[in-house]
Structures are given as C-alpha cells and as structure tokens.
Specification:
Layout (H helix, E strand, L loop, with lengths): L2 H12 L23 H17 L5 E5 L6 E10 L6 E7 L7 E10 L3 E4 L3
Antiparallel strand pairs: 1-2, 2-3, 3-4, 4-5
Length: 120
C-alpha cells in the first residue's frame, strides 16, 4: 500500500475518542475523507460521537475546523433494532454535500467499549 493510504487507514482507525475498529476502510481511498488532516479528524470525530449519542434518525450534524476551514456533515441515517446493542447507520460528508460521500457505515455501542464500526 502507498503512504497516503496507510495514513488514511491510520487516521480512520484512531477516529479520536470513538475507539473504533475498522472493518473495511477501502472506501476512504477514493473519498474526500482522505484529504482531512488530524485536526479535521478530531473535529469530525467529536461531532460523530455526539451525533451517535444524541441525534435523531435523519438528523445531520455539521462540523468545522476553524484553523483549516474544512467542514462537513455527519448524517445519522437510521437506528437498527436487530441486535441487543444499539446500532446506527452513518454517512459522512466532509465537504457538506448532505452525506453523499461513500457508503454508510454501521456503528454499534458495545458496553464498556463505546461506539465501534460493526464488521461487515
């Protein structure tokens, strides 16, 4: 893998305070998420955590990094009720295009571990 893809995968895995485990991050390679720096990721990941915890289905939360000027949206698509733990489908939109970047990811809140990407 090239250096840029390694950096993207690393940033995706640390997704700040979410303590996420990646299942398939290949979609990042061709998405605009690959252009985010560490401060952008921090702003986006905090918004993601807040949205996962409190946003209603269909709600969009906006994030912005004041330093870089980058911004985007985190869209909570829906809540899944097919498991014993809470799971939510999310779509990212780092340029504010209403969540049209990449395929949705499913995050599940595991007791004592927080929100994690559900394996596909």
């Amino acid at each position: 893998m090239n250096f840029r893809l390694h950096r993207i995968l690393f940033l995706a895995l640390i997704l700040a305070s979410l303590d996420s485990q990646a299942s398939n991050w290949q979609w990042l390679h061709n998405s605009s998420l690959g252009d985010l720096d560490e401060a952008d990721w921090a702003a986006m990941s905090q918004t993601l955590k807040d949205a996962l915890d409190t946003a209603a289905d269909g709600e969009t939360r906006h994030w912005r990094n004041q330093e870089s000027g980058r911004q985007g949206d985190v869209v909570i698509l829906n809540t899944l009720h097919d498991s014993e733990i809470p799971c939510r489908q999310v779509r990212f939109s780092p340029d504010g295009n209403a969540g049209r970047d990449g395929r949705p990811l499913t995050f599940c809140k595991e007791p004592g571990k927080g929100w994690r990407v559900r394996s596909q």
